[in-house]
Design brief:
globular; 26% helix; two-stranded antiparallel ribbon; eight-stranded mixed β-sheet
Length: 212
C-alpha cells in the first residue's frame, strides 16, 4: 500500500496493520495468562472454605480450633453416691457397679470437683486395665484390694486410650479422682479407705444398704 492512499503508519514508521496485529497477539497472551490463574483460584476455593469450616484464622495466622477435641456423646446419669474416707480426707463418690456403669465411667463428663470421684466396684478380685476413651478430665486412679487398701496409684491423661494395667490381680475397686488428688492430700499406696457404713467389703458385699 502506498502512503497517501489510505495507509497509516505508526510512530516508528511501521504500517499500522503490524501494530494492530501485535496488539491482537498481546491480548491473546494476556487472556491465555489469566486463564490458568483463574483455574488455580477456583481449585483453591474449596481449600479456603475448608479452613474456615475447621477453625477461624486469626490476624496472626494461627488456627483457632473450637470444640474439635471434645468427643461427641452424653455422660451417663449421675450414679448413687456415698462418702468415702481415706485417712482424714473425705470424698463424695459415685458408685459404678453394673457392666454398663463401669464401661461408661467418666466418659463425656466436663466437670469434677476436687473432693468428688467415682468408685468402681467389681464382684471379685482381678487384674484390671483402665483407659481414658472419651474422657477429657485429667484423672488419677487408685487400684484397691478387697480390704480397701490402695495397691497402686496411676496418672491418667485425657483421651489417652493406652490401657493402664494393674500389676496386681487382687484389684476389687478402682477409685478415680482429679489428677494429682492423692499427691495433694498426701495419700499414698498402703492407705485404707472405708465408707460411712464401714469397710468396703461390708458396704458393698455385706448387709449394708449399698450391697446388691
Amino acid at each position: 500500500m502506498i502512503e497517501g492512499e489510505g495507509e497509516r503508519k505508526t510512530k516508528d514508521g511501521r504500517p499500522s496493520f503490524y501494530f494492530e496485529r501485535e496488539f491482537w497477539f498481546a491480548k491473546v497472551i494476556l487472556v491465555t495468562w489469566r486463564l490458568p490463574v483463574a483455574l488455580i483460584g477456583i481449585a483453591l476455593l474449596p481449600l479456603v472454605l475448608g479452613c474456615d469450616q475447621r477453625g477461624r484464622i486469626s490476624s496472626q495466622g494461627e488456627a483457632s480450633v473450637t470444640g474439635t477435641n471434645q468427643p461427641a456423646g452424653k455422660p451417663q446419669p449421675k450414679l448413687p453416691t456415698t462418702k468415702l474416707w481415706i485417712g482424714r480426707e473425705v470424698l463424695t463418690v459415685e458408685v459404678a457397679r453394673t457392666q454398663e456403669e463401669i464401661s461408661k465411667g467418666m466418659m463425656y463428663r466436663k466437670e469434677l470437683d476436687e473432693n468428688e470421684g467415682m468408685l468402681f466396684v467389681f464382684p471379685r478380685p482381678r487384674q484390671v486395665s483402665f483407659f481414658m476413651r472419651n474422657t477429657t478430665i485429667p484423672l488419677s486412679c487408685a487400684y484397691v484390694d478387697s480390704d480397701g487398701t490402695i495397691l497402686e496409684i496411676h496418672k491418667m491423661e485425657p483421651l489417652d486410650e493406652t490401657p493402664v494395667r494393674s500389676s496386681s490381680d487382687k484389684v476389687r475397686y478402682v477409685l478415680e479422682v482429679r489428677q494429682g488428688w492423692f499427691q495433694r492430700h498426701q495419700i499414698q499406696e498402703g492407705a485404707v479407705m472405708q465408707t460411712e457404713a464401714g469397710s468396703l467389703e461390708a458396704t458393698f458385699f455385706g448387709s449394708s444398704s449399698y450391697a446388691r
